[in-house]
Amino acid sequence: MHPQMVMYEEEFQQVAGLCDRLTREANARCVFVIDKNGQLISASGDTGQLDTTSLASLTAGNIAATGGLAKLLGEKEFSILFHEGERDNLHISIVGGRVILVVIFDHRSSLGLVRLRVKKASEDLARVFDELARKAEQPGTQPTAFAEITDDDIDNLFSD
């Protein structure tokens, strides 16, 4: 298992913006960023018909299984996976060793365009997640479940 990642609002907005940009620039149906535990971090595009929870967990399982195959072959990992279907294609890549980037695209795009746009987006996403890792290591920046609760909130909760 990988440690739980903490997302701050600023980085969440950056990730969401990068997903939106990649969806447009790659002419993709949708884009997802998933942590290696299978938790959906961000989604962009036409996700309405998809079970995003299942997609996230199955993608993480796919990466884990492929990691096992890589080790059997003496590789560190296979950082890019491509699945071609009749209607839709999946381009899956590991970003910065931390998260999984999934691009679902159809005939309106091409593998070449997706790979080109994913390369730039991966660099930008890696910078955001590097910054998150730096924040998490700094003392005093670890948020708690109660970080946003004020004394007034507590007083209001227990007042008659």
Structural class, by secondary structure, is alpha+beta
- The string of secondary-structure elements, in order, is HEEHEEEHH
Low-pLDDT runs of 5+ residues are none
* Total of domains: 1
User: Helical content, roughly?
Assistant: 40-55%
Strand content: 15-25%
Extended strand count: 5
Distance between the termini: 44 Å
Overall shape: it is globular
Q: Quick one: CATH superfamily?
A: Dynein light chain 2a, cytoplasmic
CATH architecture: 2-Layer Sandwich
Radius of gyration, whole Å: 18 Å
Q: What attributes characterize this protein structure?
A:
160 residues, alpha+beta, Beta-Lactamase, five-stranded antiparallel beta sheet
Please characterize this protein's 3D structure.
The model has no long low-confidence stretch (mean pLDDT 87). The protein is α+β, with helices and mostly antiparallel strands and 160 residues long. It starts with 8 loop residues before the first helix and ends with a helix. It has a single domain (9-142), classed as Dynein light chain 2a, cytoplasmic (Beta-Lactamase, 2-Layer Sandwich). The protein has 4 helices and 5 strands.
Describe, in short, the structure shown.
The chain has 160 residues and is α+β, with helices and mostly antiparallel strands.
What's the layout of helices and strands?
Blueprint: H1 9-25, E1 30-35, E2 40-45, H2 52-72, E3 80-84, E4 89-95, E5 99-105, H3 111-137, H4 151-158
Antiparallel strand pairs: 1-2, 1-5, 3-4, 4-5
Helix pairs in contact: 1-3
